[in-house]
Amino acid sequence: VARDTAQLGQAEAALAQRGSDVEQAQANLQRDLAQLENARTQERRYRTLLQQELIAREQYDQIRTNMAALEATVQADRAAFANAEAARVAARATIENARAVIRAGEAAVDSARLQLGYTAIHSPLDGRMGRAEVRVGSLVGRLDSTLLATVSTLDPMYVSFSVSEREALGVWRRRQAQMQAGAGAPGITLTLPDDSAYPHPGRLDFVDRAIDPRTGTLALRAAFRNPERLLQPGQYVRLRVLVEERTDALLVPQAAIQESQGSASLFVVGPDHTAQARTVRLGPRFGTQWVVEDGVRAGEQVVVRGLQQIRGGMRVEPTLDAAPPGPPAS
């Protein structure tokens, strides 16, 4: 391209010279045309004088010879002007050809740069690369795309999980409430494989558009900061999502609940130490306990052992058991 550019500069200089030649030839032609016109005027005047026998024949012949010489000079000037104009046209054609050569060279350079770009491969993301799937010298990308290596992002890390339809409603309602209130507590925590708590909370960043009809679950994804690189791609962790918060919720051990034909019941020990059967309405399960929404009041004692031997109205001698601990969030 540099050589072709130099040739273009030479062609442009030649065109400028040809332009000067044309202007000079045109000036010469104009000058000689003026002189020819003057010679023709003299020839007509001297011819009249010769016819009147006022001048010698030799004097007229000299004027006529000068006129003929100027006519020849004008013809030569016209030929020189035409040649100069043709040379200028040829110089312009040379310039256009040089420019076409430069454009072709630039296109070749762009194509070479594009081909060169195929020799350098850059990852579109930051992270850690796994083992190479090809070796030096392998033919790649001939027909189909070729997997060279897999790069995984490390910060942030994404945890994919799914919840049931009922839990999905709770997750969605809590997310909507947080968005409206501008709450900053995400309520998503991790437990690592060694049972230690992950120090950074997560945030819900993806909710699938529909529930999977095959499993009845909704796919979600949470994002976690990973500055210490404790989380690794493909790792299995335990995820805990805060679905709902209830203040002063009434919890009953799961062992006290008897479920039959869509209803739930339990036995309450009355003040006279008699067992009373109660039908209860259950809420969500909280670890090994149930949230009871109706049927039992706070402070009442429920039976958790020997349910098969107890009947309503039977007198019992209760012994108190400590309530089982529940998880910090569910």
Structure description:
With 330 residues, this protein is of the alpha+beta class. The protein contains 3 helices and 13 strands. The strands form 4 sheets. Strands 8, 9, 10, 11, 12 and 13 form a 6-stranded antiparallel sheet that branches. Helix 1 packs antiparallel against helix 2 (57-117). It is rod-shaped and about 175 Å long.
Task: Please render the helix and strand layout as text.
Elements: H1 2-51, H2 57-117, E1 128-129, E2 151-152, E3 157-164, H3 165-181, E4 188-191, E5 202-207, E6 217-224, E7 238-241, E8 251-253, E9 258-260, E10 263-269, E11 275-286, E12 289-294, E13 301-302
Antiparallel strand pairs: 1-2, 3-6, 4-7, 5-6, 8-12, 9-10, 10-11, 10-13, 11-12
Helix pairs in contact: 1-2
Mean pLDDT: 82
Low-confidence stretches: none
Number of helical segments? 3
Strand content range: 15-25%
What percentage of residues falls in helices of 4 or more residues?
A: 25-40%
What would you report as the Rg, rounded to the nearest angstrom? 52 Å
Global geometry: rod-shaped
Which sequence of SSEs, written as H and E, runs from N to C?
Answer: HHEEEHEEEEEEEEEE
Please report the total strand number as a whole number.
13
The description of the largest β-sheet is: 6 strands, antiparallel
| Number of structural units classed as domains | 4
Structural class by helix and strand composition:
alpha+beta
How far apart are the first and last residues' alpha carbons, in Å?
71 Å
